[in-house]
Amino acid sequence: MDQHTLYIICYVWLGIAIAVHITMFFITAPFGRHTTTKWGPSINNKAGWIIMEAPSLLIMSYFLIFGTYSQESYAWIIFAFWIFHYINRTITYPIRIKATDKKMPLVIAINAIFFNLMNAGLNGYYLGELADPSLYGDEWLMNPRTWFGIFLFVVGMGINWRADHILINLRKPGETGYKIPKGFLFDWVSSPNLMGEVIEWTGFAIMAWNLPALTFAAWTFANLVPRAKNHHDWYKQRFPEYPEKRKAIFPYIF
To answer: In the chain, where are the structural domains located?
Structure first.
């Protein structure tokens, strides 16, 4: 596949992201606190996370090792950030979350697998097979834009991890039900974990500075902003005392 063909796929994929973004404000994805049995067969929640996130980790690892240009430039740095994130999402995070009776609809896992196949495939193929080594040479490494992207990625990842840690430990051993998370950025937004991911992949797009990376950042925004709004509305409906000043995902804005 040449670069022209890959770019066409990226533009189509971006168009689909816009449609999905709009749709998700009206249809709540049925997993986590929004789990429902109306979406067909379900699977274990921890297994679902591992199965649906694994393609991103495996595909990018493959292109890092076997890609034509992967190790002929500093592109390996971009691969490393992606792989580091997905080691957490595929292995560490599912191990850390508490076992519950709630399951994940199989259709959600299948959709997520396709989502990750597309995004990891586009980014891995571009970096491993199409990106001329000169694109990620010394000039790229010393560019302030690259380091600003790295900074955003690290900050976003830190926010995501810290917020996940708070949510995972929100209930004491033996407790059930939901609580209002407090402290850290939860005092400002309902879903700082999702805000962190949006920041993280925006930084990735700035760091990598290519169309597939931008496409993935757009998809992250398209998926997570409506998801945060769903969480925010859920909290407000469930807890009458929920803080009015909190926004869904972006402080003071939305």
So the answer is: 3-238
